[in-house]
């Protein structure tokens, strides 16, 4: 694929580079904010699963930008992967499903709870949809668990969600903690993807609830179809297409020259990942060491770009694709 073909195919990838965002995901948070005014009055925020850091960039620019708030702003960003530094962002490299990581985050907010927690966590997809959806749900619940320790009453939690078959259970669990839960789909999230975002507003834990990291929210012994839940157990949350609806359509291909008065110019990505997990595979592939020696080229079909990256075509894998592009 030529360097400019990705620019042509993915308008948000290209705009991200033009505007200096580390990933196209930045537009998802910006468009969610257009709809929900997420950053209003926010000084302290947590960005879970933050690498390569475009959501942290958005938080840093938006929160620090408000007059006189600069010094009070506190942003804690967490990811398994290392991330290049950002102004006003404290970084923790760790797994959000681990109690030790959660405890480290909680320590940063002792005495001063967070106003906003966001989580754009995505697993390394296996291609087995049920497994991917399950792992995604676990990430969301780990994020919710951490949130119950650090979020102030009335605060907001935003998280990526896969609208898979058990999504109703997740909505029900979120409704226990928040007065308002909406499933939102920003314009920059492809319609072809099952990805969406839950925007949970008005944090109100149930009376007597004591946050406890050793008490996972999703127990492992259910075997019913949660979409059969009835009565008060079945929560149907509103679904909202959000962001300015005249914004670019992330499923469309756009010409390279968008503005007739401005010539197209290729721009490199704003911040290549520091040590991406696919780096070794790229190196092996470059030296033709990925194929097994005893298999002839004719008997080994060329893998698709998705397969090479271990990606499932049903998901919005923009960030992974961007990273592969920069490798
Ligand atoms: C879609 S990317 C996040 C993009 C980010 N919001 C941005 O705008 O740059 C998903 C991230 O989730 C992280 N992740 C997945 N599982 C995780 C876990 N258990 N703990 C911490 N981070 C995790 C991955 O390392 C990856 O960087």
Describe the structure.
Residues 295-327 have a biased composition (Polar residues). GO terms for molecular function: tRNA (guanosine(34)-2'-O)-methyltransferase activity. Keywords: Cytoplasm, Methyltransferase, S-adenosyl-L-methionine, Transferase, tRNA processing. Pfam families: FtsJ. Helix 1 packs across helix 2 (11-19). This protein has 327 residues and is of the alpha/beta class. It folds into 2 domains: 3-242, Vaccinia Virus protein VP39 (Rossmann fold); 279-326, no CATH class. The chain is 31% helix and 17% strand. The model is unreliable at 216-226 and 297-327 (pLDDT under 50). Strands 3-2-1-4-5-7-6-8 form an 8-stranded mixed sheet, sandwiched between helices.
| Ligands, ions, cofactors | S-adenosylmethionine
Order of adjacent strands in the largest pleated sheet: 3-2-1-4-5-7-6-8
Number of domains: 2
Average pLDDT across residues? Answer: 82
Please provide the ordered H/E string of secondary-structure elements.
Answer: HHHEHEEHEHEHEEEHHH
> Would you count the extended β strands for me?
8
Structural class: alpha/beta
CATH class of the largest domain: Alpha Beta
Name the features.
10 helices; 31% helix; binds S-adenosylmethionine; alpha/beta; 327 residues; disordered C terminus; Rossmann fold; 2 domains
């Amino acid at each position: 694929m030529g360097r400019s073909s990705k620019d042509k195919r993915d308008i948000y990838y290209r705009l991200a580079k033009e505007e200096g965002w580390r990933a196209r995901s930045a537009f998802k948070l910006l468009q969610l904010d257009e709809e929900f005014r997420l950053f209003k009055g926010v000084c302290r925020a947590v960005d879970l699963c933050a690498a390569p850091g475009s959501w942290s960039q958005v938080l840093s620019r938006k929160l620090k930008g408000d007059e006189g708030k600069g010094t009070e702003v506190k942003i804690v960003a967490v990811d398994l992967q290392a991330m290049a530094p950002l102004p006003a962002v404290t970084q923790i490299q760790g797994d959000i499903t681990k109690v030790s990581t959660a405890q480290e985050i909680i320590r940063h907010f002792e005495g001063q709870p967070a106003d906003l927690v966001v989580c754009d966590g995505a697993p390394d997809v296996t291609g087995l949809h049920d497994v991917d959806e399950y792992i995604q749900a676990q990430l969301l619940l780990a994020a919710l668990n951490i949130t119950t320790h650090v979020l102030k009453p009335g605060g907001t939690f935003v998280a990526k969600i896969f609208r898979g078959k058990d999504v109703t259970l997740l909505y029900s669990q979120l409704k226990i903690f928040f007065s308002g839960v909406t499933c939102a789909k920003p314009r920059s999230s492809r319609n072809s993807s099952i990805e969406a975002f839950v925007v949970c507003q008005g944090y109100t834990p149930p009376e007597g609830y004591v946050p406890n990291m050793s008490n996972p929210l999703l127990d492992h012994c259910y075997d019913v179809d949660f979409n059969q839940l009835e009565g008060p157990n079945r929560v149907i949350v509103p679904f909202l297409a959000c962001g300015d609806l005249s914004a670019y359509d992330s499923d469309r291909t756009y010409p390279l020259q968008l503005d007739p008065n401005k010539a197209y110019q290729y721009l490199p990505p704003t911040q290549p990942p520091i040590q991406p997990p696919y780096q070794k595979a790229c190196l092996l592939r470059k030296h033709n060491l990925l194929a097994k020696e005893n298999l002839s080229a004719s008997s080994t079909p060329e893998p698709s770009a998705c397969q090479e990256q271990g990606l499932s075509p049903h998901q919005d894998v923009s960030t992974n694709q961007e990273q592969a592009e920069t490798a």
